[in-house]
Amino acid sequence: MIRINNFNLPRIIGHRGVKNLFPENTIESILAAFKLGLDCVEIDVKISKDKVPILMHDHTLDRTTSGSGFAHLHRFEDIKKLDAGSFFYKKKTNCLVPTLEEVLKLFVNTNKILNIELKPSNSLEKDNVKEIFKLTSKYDSVPIYYSSFDLKSCLELISINKNAFCGLILDSFNDCGLSQLIALSKKNNFYACGLNKKIITVDVVRELIEKKIIVTVYSDKNITNNEAKELWNMGVQSIFSDDPTSLLNNF
Ligand code: G3P
Ligand code: CA
Description:
By secondary structure, the chain is an alpha/beta fold. Helix content is 33%, strand content 18%. A nine-stranded mixed β-sheet has the order 1-9-8-7-6-5-4-2-3. Strand 5 (144-148), helix 6 and strand 6 (165-170) form a beta-alpha-beta unit. It is globular and about 50 Å long. The two termini are 34 Å apart. The relative contact order is 0.15. Calcium ion binds at residues 16, 42, 44, 117.
């Protein structure tokens, strides 16, 4: 197995930038994560109608921007006019929806790791991966960890570059059990996996580590100091944090 730009995921990963402190998935949020000293930041990426990879968590523009409707049905020239901060500050702002390329430029020469969560719109899984990878290939000095809830996206990525660092994310074990996650990860040479905190147990983490699969954990709420300590003690490599201020002050 040849891996280029080998890296270790740090203990704390900024979630959508630092989503509780600044509007998620914006340049402001990513720069705030840098300023706090985080070595890895997670963002959600999908393509616009004209196939520009942009930062957007939801399928639609409604929750996080002043626009509405499906993101993949809007051209970037229209998306870039939207306010991506007013949902957070409850007033007009100058925060914009960034392109992935703008974000990649921020990471050049920083040694920081970018975690791109592949968040495709339905039926655009292949195009999404293709466009994202086309762009990230131009920034090969930036260490990137790709992840996705969408297995199709992970497989597509690995089919384009078998050495890419990728991980499947699971919210529950309902559709994919632990054994299946392990089998898929080994077969496809996935680097890590992402699990919701609610499905984490000592045994789950032990089994994944025994199989040499790195475990990252996210939660619907900001992970507390005590929870983080417990997770790291279990052997979890990284936790996603919405607001790492207290963690950084205490560990
Ligand atoms: O990858 C961890 C986390 O980002 C997954 O959940 O919904 O915040 O994208 P979500
Ligand atoms: Ca995400």
